[in-house]
Amino acid sequence: MVGPRVELRPLKASDWAEWRDVRVRSRDWLEPWEPFGEPGAADPIREADAFKARCGAWERQRHFDAAYGFGIFLRKGPFVGEVSLGGVQRGPFQSANVGYWIDESYAGQALMPEAVAIILRFAFEDLGLHRVEAAIVPRNKASRRVADKLGLRDEGTSDKFLQIRGVWEDHVRYAITSDDWAVRKREMEAGFLSAQPR
After folding, report:
1. Backbone angles phi, psi at 159, to 5 degrees
2. What is the CATH number of the domain that holds 164?
3. CA 116 to CA 181: how far, in whole Å?
4. Which residues constitute the domain of residue 72?
5. Is residue 19 assigned to a domain?
6. pLDDT tens for residues 89-134?
7. To which H or E segment does residue 147 belong?
8. Would you state the torsion angle of the CA atoms of residues 177, 11, 138, 169, taken in this order, to the nearest 10 degrees?
9. I want to staple 83 with a disulfide (CB 3.0 to 4.6 A). Which of 61, 99, 100, 147 is the partner?
10. What does the alpha-carbon distance between residue 59 and residue 54 come to, in Å, rounded to a whole number?
11. Is residue 108 situated within a structural domain?
12. 182 domain-assigned
């Protein structure tokens, strides 16, 4: 999936060295907002086989319509982050959660709003979802800026919603529905998916 400045594609085993370099370089920027890994699980930052297994897990989830993970690359350029739709629920929900992170050296350049706009279009137009949510630690100003730039609806704060670095943290809940997308699609595309993104 391609935007004006970024393209999204599933990560593969051969992306490991580039992915690892970004994760190591941006460790202090990223890890404060992430859960600890499973105890005893291999670390994909340290082990190529663990990264390969991670890519395989995303592929299996995609196959079963459970989750969709993508690397974010500059157009014909380097890897800069990831964006995903996780926890896909069908039936009466037709919903998913969006998650994202970016290399610290590329933060603040409106690349992430573009990548999230691309995955929202995929969620609503290709997957036929009704609702996409994002849950963000209140003090994570960079991630909240992405949600705000895209005009996602702030639906309030859930207490002790998710474990981050071993602590149950409150999260601000953002959402957008397919009805919102239908109304705001042209605005979103003009703002983030045109040749001159904001």
Report:
1. -70, 135
2. 3.40.630.30
3. 13
4. 6-192
5. yes
6. 999 999 999 999 999 999 999 999 999 999 999 999 999 999 999 9
7. helix 141-149
8. 110
9. 100
10. 9
11. yes
12. yes
